[in-house]
Amino acid sequence: MGNTKSLTYLISKYAILELLYTLLVIVSFFLSLNFLINRGWIYPANHADRVSSKIGTAFQDPDWTPTEVPFYYDILYVENGEVLKNTIEKRFDDQVIKARKDGQVIGDEIIGSRVFKFYQVNQKELVLSYTISVIPTSEKMYRFCKNFEVVYLTTFFAVWLLGFAGMIIRSSGILKKEIRKISEDNDHIKNMELDYERSFSQYEEIDGVLQSLDILSRDLKETLSAQWDMQMRQKEMIEAVTHDIRTPITLIRGNIELLQEDYPDLSSERVSDIVNGMERLESYIEKLKHFSYLIENKKEEVRAEVLDYWIALLSSMCRANGVELSILQREKSLVQLDKEAIAVALQNLLTNAMEHSDKGSCISVSFCDSRNEFSILVRDEGSGFDRALLPVLTKKFISSKTSEVASKHGLGLSIVNKIVTANNGKLYLSNRVDAPRGAEVKMVFQKEMKA
């Protein structure tokens, strides 16, 4: 924008306005004070001092009486040693004594210094007390506010403070309004509302931030659009692939049924393994439509049927690879787990175990339940984990090809770790300490404690 200004301009502008306002208030109160004096509504500050000399002269008259003293004086009048009138406050006794001794005493007050003057004629004594300050000409007004200068200065400060506060509120309001534009644009971006109406500012610094947010939102929108297009293409491709895969699966299923009819002596275990494998393959294809193995299914308690489902999967895999399976413990649990996701995790763990184990070796699995957790332990008799890679084996694409033990784990443990974490659990990897060789993987799932 061509007419943008700097925030320094705004601050300088209001600083100058405040100085001008202060000068205006000072001049206005000075002129108003002169106006009150000229109209005869107040006496100037030296009025009482000038009149005091006239009172001293009049005091010489034998017919003088205290009633001739104006209302804005306090007096102590003594005749023949007797106090006939005393309007001076007790707190000024020391000044009165000093004035009777020295003739005159002037106080050290900052505003409205008090003066004490002493006059004596024959057996008569008079002490005048007054302040050097502006005095109202009305006795009622004087009784109401004796310290007129203090009231006047207080009023001056209050008026100045109101104007100063008004300018501060005005300038801070402008800054808040401009900063609110940044906050609102930021909220739009945070809420992914990228087609919001763009804001502009007449101040360079604020407008620079708004333009940066505008560029950020446009770039983010382009990136999200490109990502969305890519996801849609991936989805279409996966839908096409999964649709094509269903045809050979249907053919395999149909041929298995024909084989069972033509050859009734076929091993039921082998046929069952194939059927179970086909069912799991179909469930994986369904999940593939959603781009992830971690699609969340309905979680359920680990009942006997769930344990049978997992053990049947492990048994079929071990039979197909010539490895023995030993179920050491099979305890049910009230913990809520995703049955299919845990099956995927067990499949990956068993695949890794069999890849690193010899034919005829044994893989042991335990399903253990306790008060606060449910755990699944998988042990093999293979080469074990490379100790140097243990801290990073659950990371994606980590492999131990470069180590002396050529044991490749790849993506499997990364998938297992994500599945365990999604089911409120933790994955622990170690080498067996109860046997000369072999790996040990433990999935521990925490139970949700009821309040």
Biggest beta sheet summary: 5 strands, antiparallel
Number of DSSP-assigned strands: 14
Order of helices and strands: HEHEEHEEEEHHHHEHEEHEEHEE
β content, as a range?
15-25%
Structural class: alpha+beta
Strand order of the largest sheet: 3-2-6-5-4
- Give the CATH H-level superfamily of the domain at 293-446: Histidine kinase-like ATPase, C-terminal domain
CATH architecture annotation of the domain at 293-446: 2-Layer Sandwich
Summarize this structure as a short list of keywords or feature phrases.
single chain, 451 residues, alpha+beta, Profilin-like, Heat Shock Protein 90, five-stranded antiparallel sheet, five-stranded mixed sheet, 10 helices, 18% strand, elongated
What does it look like?
The protein contains ten helices and 14 strands. It has helices at 7-38, 47-58, 93-102, 139-144, 148-190, 204-262, 268-288, 304-320, 339-355, 412-422; strands at residues 42-43, 74-79, 82-86, 104-106, 114-121, 124-131, 135-136, 300-302, 324-330, 333-337, 362-369, 373-379, 425-431, 439-446. A five-stranded antiparallel beta sheet has the order 3-2-6-5-4, with helices on both faces. A five-stranded mixed beta sheet has the order 9-11-12-14-13, covered by helices on one side. A hairpin with a 7-residue loop joins strand 4 (104-106) and strand 5. Helix 1 (7-38) packs antiparallel against helix 5 (148-190), helix 7 crosses helix 8 (304-320) and helix 9 (339-355) packs antiparallel against helix 10 (412-422). The radius of gyration is 50 Å and the shape is elongated. The model is unreliable at 398-409 (pLDDT under 50).
